[in-house]
Input
Amino acid sequence: MKNSVKPSRIEKQLTQEELAEKVGVTRQTIGLIEKEKYNPTIALGLKLSKVLNKSLDQLFWLEEDEHEK
Output
């Protein structure tokens, strides 16, 4: 799954720590999400969406798989 959490966070002038506090996770979790090494739960995705003022599909999307073409 791809995401635009980092550019959206920077746009809102938030640090990873500040965003983590707002959504109730650790800074490390935000870092892993931004590096696309952790897929958040739907609940966390919705919290991020609200804080970053983006729709869920603006923040997260599935990369088209070559096998699905």
Observations:
- The mean pLDDT is 94.
